[in-house]
């Protein structure tokens, strides 16, 4: 009943939240003389803090309306080009100059691990000037009716394969964090079947390929608990009146509590500073709002997908042991021969430890040496692997270079093996 109580509490707080919002506007209105006093700003700040800590954050927008190609600013149109019950494939269609030719086609597989695909807004933005970008927009499980069936690990792999088929020849795939395992599995399944539409290259970023290497707090928690414990303690049924009523899920609000507890001190300090900026009225709060509007927006995961991921990736380590199954057949990473492999890690990653993603280089034994590369970015944590200034300056250009070098419709120049500023293997 915990999910039901959560929903009841949220509904019960609605009138108080609305009243706080109205009072905040009154206290913050510049026409109100009281708004120019420290006491008035303190009241407005307190009311905003109450409203923000009791609201449910909806799915953010990408909001990428334009990009720069060469020296020209062009418009960007977001469109759904492929759809299934649990995922939409978004295309960021650029109004690129006709004379530019074809940029590489990149499929970004966003994590299905709590946050929406918009968490990768910076990833998309950095690649847009040089690539034709698509991204998986996973749908909140509580919004999917039970009549649409279940969604498990096998379905995830199938969705990736279907999207690669839809996008066609010479597509490059980037997996950010959690999808590294199903994306590698999809590539292996396609290669074993001699599928001509297997990806031209595969970039795995901060992913849990082998969590036995440098285990983090997240990995250790999974090792210390049984699968039954996770089933008993974090799986709940979606309450009425949500469209997914009675669907068993791992609720987003539980995931968020886990995210927050990992760096609780940092979040408390951030909110304290936010409050002080509001009182001082110094214009700094907008950065806080933007970050937490994104960070606090979470989605439910289907129980079957979550439990299978915990079991296969974090408890049994099935992929690096050669025991991962897809539709009753063993997934063989050694079958991957024609897909170029780039692995990217962050030196300070506290979610996927250093070496966990690089393990893909070890298990994909038949990828030629000139089609593989590993890059370790110094001085970044998990988030910095796919977002932020170092990603834009150091990582994104290297991904684009790797993609261009391994395009199946272009002449392939030699692949550089040493990258200045990082570490390669």
Automatic annotation (TrEMBL):
SUPFAM superfamilies cross-referenced by the UniProt entry: alpha/beta-Hydrolases
Transmembrane feature ranges: none
The PHB de-polymerase C-terminal domain, residue ranges: 206-406
Record protein name field: Polyhydroxyalkanoate depolymerase, intracellular
InterPro entries: AB_hydrolase_fold, PHA/PHB_synthase, PHB_depo_C, PHB_depoly_PhaZ
Species classification: Bacteria, Pseudomonadati, Pseudomonadota, Alphaproteobacteria, Hyphomicrobiales
Matches recorded under Pfam families: PHB_depo_C
């Amino acid at each position: 009943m915990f999910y039901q109580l959560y929903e009841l509490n949220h509904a019960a707080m609605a009138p108080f939240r609305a009243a706080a919002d109205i009072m905040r506007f009154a206290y913050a209105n510049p026409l109100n003389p009281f708004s120019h006093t420290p006491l008035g700003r303190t009241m407005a700040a307190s009311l905003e803090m109450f409203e923000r800590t009791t609201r449910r954050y909806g799915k953010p927008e990408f909001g990428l309306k334009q990009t720069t190609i060469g020296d020209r600013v062009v418009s960007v149109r977001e469109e759904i080009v492929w759809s299934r019950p649990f995922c939409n494939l978004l295309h960021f269609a650029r109004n690129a100059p006709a004379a530019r030719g074809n940029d590489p086609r990149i499929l970004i597989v966003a994590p299905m691990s709590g946050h929406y695909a918009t968490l990768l807004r910076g990833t998309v933005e950095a690649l847009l000037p040089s690539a034709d970008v698509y991204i998986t927009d996973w749908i909140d499980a509580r919004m999917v009716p039970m009549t649409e069936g279940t969604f498990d690990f096998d379905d995830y792999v199938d969705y990736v394969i279907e999207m690669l088929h839809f996008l066609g020849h010479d597509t490059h795939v980037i997996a950010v964090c959690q999808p590294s395992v199903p994306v590698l599995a999809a590539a292996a399944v396609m290669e074993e079947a001699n599928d001509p539409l297997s990806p031209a290259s595969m970039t795995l970023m901060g992913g849990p390929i082998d969590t036995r290497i440098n285990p983090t707090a997240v990995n250790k928690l999974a090792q210390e608990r049984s699968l039954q414990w996770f089933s008993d303690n974090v799986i709940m049924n979606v309450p009425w009146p949500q469209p997914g009523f009675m669907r068993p899920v791992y609720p987003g609000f539980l995931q968020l509590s886990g995210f927050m507890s990992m760096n609780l001190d940092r979040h408390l300090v951030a909110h304290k500073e936010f409050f002080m900026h509001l009182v001082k009225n110094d214009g700094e709060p907008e950065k806080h709002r933007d970050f937490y509007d994104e960070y606090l927006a979470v989605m439910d995961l289907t129980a079957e997908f979550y439990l299978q991921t915990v079991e296969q990736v974090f408890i049994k380590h099935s992929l690096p042991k050669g025991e991962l199954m897809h539709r009753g057949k063993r997934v063989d990473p050694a079958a991957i021969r024609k897909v170029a492999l780039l692995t990217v890690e962050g030196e300070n990653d506290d979610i996927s430890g250093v070496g966990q993603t690089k393990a893909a280089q070890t298990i994909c034994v038949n990828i030629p040496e000139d089609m593989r590369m590993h890059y370790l970015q110094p001085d970044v944590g998990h988030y910095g692997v796919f977002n932020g200034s170092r990603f834009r300056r150091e990582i994104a250009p290297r991904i684009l270079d790797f993609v261009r070098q391994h395009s199946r419709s272009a002449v392939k120049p030699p692949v550089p093996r040493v990258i200045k500023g990082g570490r390669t293997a």
